[in-house]
Amino acid sequence: MMTKYDQGLDRLAANHQPMTPISYLQRAARTSPDHPAVIHGRQHHSYARLWSDCRRLASALAGRGIGRGDTVSVILSNTPPMIHAHFAVPMAGGAVLHSINTRSDAATVAFQLDHAESRILIVDREFSAMAAEALALAKVRPLVIDFDDAEYPDDAPHPKGEPIGDLDYEQFLAEGDAEFAGSLPGDEWDAISLNYTSGTTGNPKGVVCHHRGAALMALNNVIHAGLGKHPVYLWTLPMFHCNGWCFPWAVPVQAGTQVCLRWVRAGAIYDAIADHGITHLCGAPIVMSTLLNAPDEQKRSFPQQVVFNTAAAPPPETVLRAMADAGFSVTHLYGLTETYGPAVVNEWNPAWDVLPAPEQAARKARQGVRYLSLDDLAVMDPETMQPVPADGQTLGEVMFRGNAVMKGYLKNPEATAAAFAGGWFHSGDLAVMHPDGYIQLKDRSKDIIISGGENISSIEIEEQLYRHPAVAACAVVAMPSEKWGETPCAFVELRDGCEETEAGLIAHCRTGLAGYKCPSRVVFGPLPKTSTGKTQKFALRTQAAELARAPV
After folding, report:
1. DSSP string, 106-162
2. Alpha helices (H) along 1-46
3. What pLDDT is attached to residue 529?
4. For residue 471, what is the domain's CATH number?
5. Rounded Cα distance, 121 and 334, in Å
6. Given this model, what pLDDT does residue 537 score?
7. What is the mean pLDDT of the chain?
8. Residue 538: per-residue pLDDT
9. CA atoms 399, 408, 222, 364: torsion sign
10. What is the CATH number of the domain that holds 27?
11. What pTM value is reported for the model?
């Protein structure tokens, strides 16, 4: 129905433009051209230089026929070309950036290259051997460009691989025009990036994100991570992981500085914090452990408080206290690849500061509330699609709706339809909703342990194990049981210099859990982890199944 507010008030180029994070870098280059945008070893690039490099890369891509709907794949570490790619690829007529996990095996990379129909592949020479093997397995034949990092350290754990490409990155940039105008998306719904899920069973799914979501998530990061004017952001999180949680696009909003870091090493992190005045960094809990457990000779003092954004399991209270003592303020986030990375934040209420320590710890363990660009965040019964009671007890599935949700899965309409059934994105995570609207994860749906007909949360057991002073890291999975169907099996890493027994940890669990929830077995040793620091529970399930079959 037309109203007076529709008549003669059309959507025009003058009053409506598609949202895109490309405009954030363009603005920063105009307003802060001389401010440091990127630091990489001895290299310091201004915003004028960064914008020029992005335009040259976009121009070179366009000159090679790259345009809307074409996939540009990269196997890069946290280096300047990775930042370039986040802006230049979509500027090249609407191409799509496909960031590949550098720890992937060749077969997985080959699948992704073929599935994405990659036209160009940019490869850091650190990963050239794996990339060469993947290309030999793949059907596509992309133009391959080598990145030979001049800052690659002489004392690296392994030497650079041999060139495998058609030309070098600097040669390719030289093909481009530093004054190239580039192109903004014709529609903010256009794809900007492609990220593949971890694919613990079968082939991974290709998550397609759009310009509007990337632009809004960048602004969300500014708000929820507290990026003030000219922040200094350290790349401890791999940029290939959910496009670095959209921080490559977020930091230029405030004309901040991005400090590159090839490897997560405690000494290098402390040096960067002290030497460059780092204000923000992100990472999995393993990064916190790396910092806290570093030898004293690697630690450096610094005057500023550093915001540390972490996802995955909530940090134990002991870790939070240790991080605060070390000068870090930890913010707990939650999200998935399908939500551009974290889209939920444990927003701290200052009124909780007066609560006793155990009650504060209980609130810090919650995942939190939705980011601003989410329309809604709910815990629902996946069968009835009705919200569960907000009682902090009733389990349901976490569901998302809004601009921070992917377009869908590439070439997989069945999986897309299943993920969006009922008008919500189904996360597969199980949680409770507290009366104040904060959600708290209890498990992945596949990680719930059903023992004797009772549902047991592996996270609840892990939280109890973390209360033991000797436990550095732990994970709990289901172990097959003839009697009970399944029982909990705990895998534990002990802190350096600490000792504990299986019986001792089971007794500790009994002090805070019902007997049926306690582990029937405790296995000591290092936990298998992904490249982003998440525990590979599928590998632990295999170990637990083998334990169950082994004679006692």
Report:
1. HHHHHHHHHHHTEEEEEEEGGGHHHHHHHHHH-S---EEEEE--TT--TT-SSPPPP
2. 22-31
3. 83
4. 3.30.300.30
5. 31
6. 87
7. 92
8. 80
9. positive
10. 3.40.50.12780
11. 0.85
